[in-house]
């Protein structure tokens, strides 16, 4: 077996499971070069692997490193999103679930393509560390009940490598690669139940509803087939999920919501829907509706924010973060309004373009290993249906310098289409179980 012949077999639509498994091992142990990994990813994206190949790649990537086993007095659960813009749900959901008697060793990712990454967001908190290693992760489960960490070098190392290469080679948008990427990490983390947030709309990697359904089905079938109780919600990403996009800005919005200072209802509603699913899947509540009620209660009565604060401290952040986040999160040096292109109503937003604008501001990576500027992005984002004009800009841009601000202003203006208010779109569009 060698990398060139496996790549050629994928290119020619005749990849075999043992070849894919060999390639996954080669990613982990360094036998496969970066160039070969990029070519492999592009061949998979263009040709697809089929059901059998997708399952083989997922399992081999899962087995490319350690598999965790837990001995905790409650179910071990997690959620994963296929990637969005302004989507900071993990920061609310992990502590909320931990308040409901389940354990959440959340293994998260960095920004991918135009989408934000949970780890990049959390690293905007001074001192917060996501590279904990397994012994510390186990301690965090006992001390706090939740943690948000990077996959250690030993969990699905094949994905760690391929993920970074896909991010910079235009090879994210593949049902097979997304499935193998997400599930290799999640299945290796030893979960009892998993809920997937599969995005649909202009900010999703796979924007069309039919593609999102196919991805949701592939994820749910592959995960359940591997013994992890899993369901998926297909949710709206035809607009940024919340009012901010950018690492520190999203953390501030989460804190405003958790503390009740300024609640973003869509953050709460999606957290409640996903959390309700999880609590039902792992048998903590008889159904998702009762699960949702429990999550809503802990989000609003202060328990979730208290747990978030404990998680921050346990992962190296400031003890007073919950009280002083507004001063502890560093602001960008340039903050300017983004004028509406014309007065009127927003008909649509190209959400991917908003995410790309954040990446170009420095909030994501254009090349592997680029540093991320936590301060930049957009706040006060207007949404489809909102009236904008001289008194209501499209957003505030937060930039490292005036040139960056100007480029982002032009990009956001170009991402917006003015016209009739669109028909309302449900945040949760479908459930796939
Ligand atoms: N999240 C992941 O972990 N991997 C993907 O490919 C997409 C979203």
Structure description:
It is a single chain. With 433 residues, the protein is α/β, with parallel strands linked by helices. It folds into 3 domains: 3-48, no CATH class; 77-324, Pyrimidine Nucleoside Phosphorylase, Chain A, domain 2; 334-418, Pyrimidine nucleoside phosphorylase-like, C-terminal domain (Aldehyde Oxidoreductase, domain 3, Alpha-Beta Complex). Helix content is 48%, strand content 14%. It contains 17 helices and 12 strands. The strands form 4 sheets. Strands 1-4-5-12 form a 4-stranded mixed beta sheet, with helices on both faces. Helix 2 packs across helix 8, helix 5 crosses helix 12 (265-281) and helix 9 (175-188) packs parallel to helix 10 (209-225). It starts with a helix and ends with a strand. Uracil binds next to helix 9.
Short précis:
With 433 residues, this protein is α/β, with parallel strands linked by helices.
CATH class membership of the largest domain: Alpha Beta
Gap between N and C termini: 37 Å
Q: What does the radius of gyration come to? A: 21 Å
Query: Which series of helices and strands comes N to C?
Result: HHHHEHEHHEHHEHEHHHHHEEHEEEHEE
User: How many H/I helical runs?
Assistant: 17
Mean pLDDT: 96
Q: What strand line-up does the widest sheet have?
A: 1-4-5-12
Secondary structure category: alpha/beta
Q: Low-confidence parts lasting 5 or more residues at pLDDT below 50?
A: none
Q: What ligands are attached or bound here?
A: uracil
CATH architectural group of the largest domain: 3-Layer(aba) Sandwich
CATH superfamily of the largest domain: Nucleoside phosphorylase/phosphoribosyltransferase catalytic domain
Q: Describe the sheet with the most strands.
A: 4 strands, mixed
The rough form would be described as globular
Instruction: Tally the beta strands.
Output: 12
Beta-strand content: 5-15%
Helix content estimate = 40-55%
């Amino acid at each position: 077996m060698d990398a060139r012949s496996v790549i050629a077999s994928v290119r020619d639509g005749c990849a075999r499971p043992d070849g894919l498994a060999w390639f996954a091992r080669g990613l982990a142990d360094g036998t496969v070069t970066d160039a070969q990994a990029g070519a492999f990813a592009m061949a998979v994206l263009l040709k697809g692997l089929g059901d059998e190949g997708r399952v083989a790649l997922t399992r081999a990537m899962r087995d490319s490193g350690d598999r965790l086993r837990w001995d905790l007095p409650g179910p071990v659960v997690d959620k994963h999103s296929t990637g969005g813009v302004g989507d900071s749900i993990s920061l609310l959901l992990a502590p909320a679930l931990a308040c409901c008697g389940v354990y959440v060793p959340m293994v998260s990712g960095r920004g991918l393509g135009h989408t934000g990454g949970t780890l990049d967001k959390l690293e905007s908190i001074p001192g917060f560390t996501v590279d904990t290693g397994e012994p510390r992760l186990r301690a965090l489960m006992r001390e706090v009940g939740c943690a948000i960490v990077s996959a250690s070098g030993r969990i699905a190392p094949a994905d760690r490598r391929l993920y970074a290469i896909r991010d910079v080679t235009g090879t994210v948008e593949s049902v097979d690669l997304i499935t193998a990427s997400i599930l290799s990490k999640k299945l290796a983390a030893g979960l009892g139940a998993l809920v997937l947030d599969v995005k649909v709309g202009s900010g999703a990697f796979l924007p069309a509803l039919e593609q999102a359904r196919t991805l949701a089905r592939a994820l749910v079938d592959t995960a359940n087939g591997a013994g992890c109780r899993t369901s998926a919600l297909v949710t709206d990403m035809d607009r940024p999920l919340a009012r901010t996009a950018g690492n520190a800005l999203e953390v501030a919005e989460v804190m405003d919501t958790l503390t009740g200072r300024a609640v973003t209802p869509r953050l709460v509603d999606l957290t409640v829907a996903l959390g309700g699913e999880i609590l039902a899947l792992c048998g903590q509540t008889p159904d998702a509706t009762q699960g949702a009620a429990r999550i809503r209660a802990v989000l609003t009565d202060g328990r979730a924010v208290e747990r978030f604060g404990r998680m921050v401290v346990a992962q190296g952040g400031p003890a007073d973060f919950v009280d002083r986040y507004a001063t502890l999160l560093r602001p960008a040096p340039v903050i300017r309004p983004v004028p509406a292109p014309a007065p009127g109503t927003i008909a649509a937003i190209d959400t991917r373009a908003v995410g790309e604008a954040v990446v170009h501001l420095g909030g994501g990576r254009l090349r592997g290993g680029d540093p991320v500027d936590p301060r930049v992005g957009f706040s006060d984002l207007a949404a489809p249906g909102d009236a904008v004009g001289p008194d209501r800009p499209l957003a505030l841009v937060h930039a490292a310098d005036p040139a960056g601000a100007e480029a982002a202003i032009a990009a956001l203006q170009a991402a917006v289409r003015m016209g009739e208010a669109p028909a309302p779109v449900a945040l949760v569009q479908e459930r796939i179980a």
